[in-house]
Structure prediction request, 367 residues.
Amino acid sequence: MLNAGIVGLPNVGKSTLFNALTRTRKAESANYPFCTIDPNVGVVQVPDERLEPLREIAKTNTVIPAAIEFVDIAGLVAGASKGEGLGNKFLANIREVDAIVQVVRCFEDGDIIHNMGSVDPIRDIDIINTELVLADLESAENQLAKLQKKAKGMDKEAAAEVALLEKIIPVLNENKPAVSLDYDEQEQERLKHFNLLTSKPILYACNVKEDDLSDAPNNPFVQKVQEHVKELGASGSCHISARLEADLIDLDEEEAQEFLTEMGVDDSGVSTLIRATYDLLGLASYFTAGEKEVRAWTFRKGMKAPQCAGVIHTDFESGFIKAEVVSYEDLVAAGSVMAAREAGKYRLEGKEYEFVDGDVALFRFNN
Prediction:
């Protein structure tokens, strides 16, 4: 299962957000730096409004959503790349995740300490990004030295990796992330070998106060982050109220919705964050729908039919014959499987078919 690491400076709301995402109180949340030392890990369901219409069509009571994993990582401080604070632990933990959700404090509160002494989301973003770039620069230069020796021995792959590092290092020296460069397909594969922190996709989560959530787009801190994200060429941003969502943990669904309505919002932003992270990881969902269950299956965008079948079971991939596919929209518009078949909306797809988000599939395979 792919995962995303929740990072940020101390006391920006990382652990509160983690608790809200996972609907638990696994992560200690307190008003002092380094409250989180060892990373907390939680599996989170991906909200998907398409599951309920499919459940009604399939006439089943069992629905299984897609899921992703979030990791709550210790707060970072300036100097982390040189071991300051919990820097070494932070950097080691972040190397293990597939994407980064950087929580940025976008609220004033005199009762909650900011380790930098004031609230400035752009400064906070730049502190973390600089530490990641510095760590990558050291790592890239060390790897380059080793690969240059191999390349002298006529190792073609080593030579190609040397060329790629020589392309990346000048960018890092300009305090820019590795992800800001354009890479061809072969370079993208080689880039994975280096495990650079700044090659991971990043989503910025603007954490606002409960009372500011309904008007978050007009929050001056949020607006500054959105502009800065464009300059960085990052994957995007969203706004959330971690504290508000944490208050909903102990409420049932109906009570939680009533509470949100009273606050003037439909959602605390957490559902949007989960879906955005799912997309950030390059993931999408196809569905199976029958009397036994309706289920969302996670696949990487670009995967072909046999690989998607293998998500269910390896036998499905090795014995793949055909995939019987209908789009979610066509199935719901028809109102039933039979009506969709009669309307000619089902189609048989072979091994070269590239699945798209929202496909509803039935696989044919040899046992």
About this structure: Residues 24-38 have pLDDT under 50 and may be disordered.
